[in-house]
Amino acid sequence: MIQADIPLEAALNALLLADAHALDSKDMPGWLGNYAEEEAASYICRSAENSEHGLAIGLMYDDCRARLEDRVTFVNDIWVGTFQDYRTRHFVQLTSYARIDSITVEMRSNFSVFMTPKDSGITQVLAAGEYLDRVRQGKNGELKLLSRRAELDTSVLPRYLVYPI
Amino acid sequence: MTDLKLPWPKNYNEVPKEAFVRKDIYAEEVKRIFHGTEWHPVAHESELPTPGDFKTFRLAGVPLLIGRDVEGVVRVFYNACSHRGNQLETAVMGNKTEFECPYHRWLFDSKGDLVGCPNPREFLPGFNKADYPLAQPRFDIFFGLIFVTLSAQTESLLEYLGDSQNCLRELLAGDGRLKLLGYQKVRYDTNWKSYTDNDGYHAPLLHQAFKMLNWQGGQGRQYTATMRGHICFESALSVATGPSVLKDKSLIEFKGQDPAVGSRIVSLFPTFVSTKHLDVINLRFATPIDAETVEVHYAYFAHQDDDEDMVRHRLRQSSNLLGPCGLISMEDASIFHRIHIGNHTPGSAIFQKGVHDPLKLESEFLQNDESGNLPRWEYYRSIMGFERATA
Fold first, then answer.
1. Of the N and C termini of chain A, which has fewer Cβ atoms inside 10 Å?
2. How many domains does chain B have?
């Protein structure tokens, strides 16, 4: 960030916080609403270990808008009542951004996610890593995620995942 | 071997829950099973496609270095320097033609031979580098699947696999010529035996996706092989019909060539589970961490002859279907945790579905039976030396 674009930076931070808030509230339609309404909108969650070795398998591989919508169906309809629920807290920190063209911005941010299973009540770290995002700017200036890759430093998860990271 | 006591019920369909939670039993399992006369899959050759490729893995705590030497031969070593035992390689995978221990700079080539060590003139008289290669456990390979045993007494790998060989070979695409797509790795808060005790009965009941997608199953064969009760499932592929709740149907689409037996599972004693379902080829390398934790590395593969579209289809299907966050498997992960909590209660776990006579063991089952797990339990009981009640 050689030259800060303060309004853009504030808008990017607002998008990061909106996503963290939707996830921590388990508001899956709200989570989906943070993504651009484009066929190519995507969310991929993958270990950095896989990426570093050129291995593409993800923990979640939602590489089109239809799959993002199906992710909401998994959590809200298909899996209901089958798992031990857990609270999460996402902490995100913007580390860099760059304008790609008039409607697209790239940004990177760090994240750490705490989880607290409802049955044990013990809080532990679920995952840490980096979000690699491409952000779309709409006609009214509003920002949405066009693509997000959650790149996990955590190569061995301490638990199965129900919600996106 | 210590003489451990655990009263075992007379009926074959009852398993005492204490077996899952007692720490003294776990310590004995490590000796008798994980360090004993069993074969353990630790990698597939396709994870090391080129000379110099290696992977490290810990089998019940024992560090292993699995590598392809400069001439292309696959070898398995203990991942410890032959000098003082320092962990030799710290990377999970990579490519190296030499391995150097940083402690005293002993250097090994990709065949495990010691090729350099500083100040050898000050060593014991008669020191010879040739006497200090990296130590190796016994290993053998079945259609690319690399097995290790830590006992000299274990029978040959083919005898060990017995009648599970055909199903396992077919699951490995018939020729073992796989191509690695990547990993999903996770720890489950459960005893290793609960992780492998998943059954055919639960599938249509726990997994709501089958019902919501109108995805019928139950037409297959389940059988056990050898005295160890390795479990094989073979079933015709059923494809979801009717209106779908999914907007992207490629997740449950089948593009392969073998719908007659499109779905296979091979579960080898003690911890290996492998599955080929739709176009997913998944090998799960698992190891106990302690009595209540098991670590599972889900490795996914394509076939070497796949075209680009098929590789992409397998990648998209594999990531979202059968792993620790998959559409029809995330719920299993939660059951592993919950059954471990429940196992801290008195009494026995009872198997019902498919049991015809509690005093007899069978080896052929229906796809949705849970009784297919019972021969394995009988083998476990016998190798642990637990006595079955007579009345």
1. N
2. 2
